[in-house]
Design a protein that fits this description.
The chain is mainly β. The chain has one helix at 3-7, and strands at 13-18, 24-26, 30-32, 49-54, 57-62, 65-67, 74-77, 80-85, 88-90, 101-104, 107-117, 123-125, 129-139, 145-150, 156-170, 174-180, 185-201, 203-208, 226-239, 243-248, 255-267, 275-279, 281-289. The strands form two sheets. Strands 2, 3, 5, 6, 8, 9, 11, 13, 15, 17, 19, 21 and 23 form a 13-stranded parallel sheet that branches. It has a ten-stranded parallel sheet with strand order 1-4-7-10-12-14-16-18-20-22, with no helix packed on it. The two termini are 35 Å apart. 47% of the residues are buried. It binds 2-acetamido-2-deoxy-beta-D-glucopyranose (6 copies). Residues 156, 158, 185-186 line the site of one 2-acetamido-2-deoxy-beta-D-glucopyranose (NAG). It holds the Pfam family Glyco_hydro_28.
Length: 297
């Protein structure tokens, strides 16, 4: 949720609905962004988002196909109450920034039973979002389901009550990820991942409090977004690497109450055992392989 978007919601958007209450879009058509002409564009901020809902309350979006968006396929900003279901979203794995669904500043959002295969995040939940339920999503290829990146430029970002359930990740770069920049304030808390299946995922479970995309000059700061009350439960699958659980929490603030229960992830690297890595992560694990004995009490 960038500043320009808040102030000028009509710029750089292709199809946009703003301040609409009770809108239902229920159909079987296709929204084709014909993005391939835009993807080579070097200035990403000049690329339009395909379908945007800004300050829309009680939205229902159902049944459409969304293909090859210029940038994000679907964006929800400052919306209250939305049910998104039975969508089919696809763009090539190599297309830049073609997120499936981005949610920012929104609450009471339900996303279910959809197929998302794109070049970036399947679903990204950003600052100001709460009570977001994501269930029955088939994700991949793409970058998985992400919370963040939060706390850029020291911002106060908050996200809470995000529940991801019954989702499958196939060939994604990350599976379920929480990412924050160094130097923010605020929190990401009360987050759960339940009944998840990973198939050939690169980094299945990751908390990254050192988020720094290539080309950025990042350094460690003293403040951080506080991550707490995160549970990973009933998770199975495979990874193409051996580092299947990576909980890299902030060096000063740390993460608290991280819980892993019935998490079984295998490595597909021949002859290698899967392992867990933690840094300043506090919590506990039960019935988990690889064991997460790197967690501190
Ligand atoms: C969507 O359309 C289908 C087919 O016309 C209909 O059965 C269903 O009730 C509609 N759903 C919503 C939420 O309007
Ligand atoms: C999310 O799921 C919880 C538990 O099933 C439920 O209580 C809550 O109403 C759901 N929220 C939304 C926005 O769907
Ligand atoms: C789980 O998700 C799949 C779609 O990936 C859906 O068909 C199925 O009904 C969901 N099951 C439950 C129990 O929600
Ligand atoms: C950050 O924002 C939250 C929610 O709006 C607020 O409760 C909190 O006081 C803010 N923290 C700081 C340090 O400004
Ligand atoms: C874990 O993630 C952090 C942050 O992205 C990265 O710097 C680190 O190399 C990863 N650790 C392992 C063991 O993969
Ligand atoms: C930031 O802190 C982490 C954890 O102490 C450390 O591994 C990393 O090297 C530091 N990065 C920089 C740029 O100082």
């Amino acid at each position: 949720m960038e500043q320009w978007e808040m102030e000028k919601p009509m710029t750089l958007l292709w199809l946009a609905f703003t301040n609409v209450n009770g809108l239902t879009i229920n159909g079987s058509g296709t929204i084709n962004g014909r993005g391939s002409a835009w993807w080579p564009q070097p200035c990403l901020h000049k690329v339009a988002k395909a379908l945007t809902f800004y300050r829309c309350n009680r939205l229902v979006l159902k049944g459409l196909r969304h293909i090859n968006s210029q940038r994000n396929h679907i964006t929800l900003t400052n919306c209250k109450g939305a049910t998104i279901s039975n969508l089919h979203i696809s763009a090539p794995a190599t297309s830049p920034n073609t997120d499936g669904i981005d949610i920012g500043g929104s609450s009471n959002v339900q996303i279910r039973n959809s197929f998302i295969s794109t070049g970036d995040d399947c679903i990204a939940v950003s600052s100001g979002s709460s009570h977001i339920n994501i269930t029955g999503i088939s994700c991949g290829p793409g970058h998985g389901i992400s919370i963040g990146a939060l706390g850029v430029h020291g911002e106060n970002d908050t996200v809470e009550e995000v529940h991801v359930r019954n989702c499958t990740f196939k060939g994604t770069m990350t599976g379920v990820r929480i990412k924050t920049w160094q130097g923010g304030v605020g929190y990401a808390r009360k987050i759960s991942f339940d009944k998840i299946k990973f198939i050939r995922v690169d980094s299945p479970i990751i908390i990254d409090q050192y988020y720094c995309p290539s080309g950025e000059n990042c350094r460690n700061e003293t403040s951080a977004i506080k991550i707490s009350d995160v549970s990973y439960k009933s998770i199975v699958g495979t990874s193409i690497t051996d580092k299947v659980i990576n909980l890299s929490c902030d060096q000063n603030v740390g993460c608290s109450n991280i819980q892993l229960d019935h998490v079984y992830i295998k490595s597909m690297v021949p002859g290698k055992k899967a392992y867990s890595y933690c840094f300043n992560a506090h919590g506990k694990y039960t019935h988990t392989r690889p064991v997460a004995d790197c967690l501190k009490p």
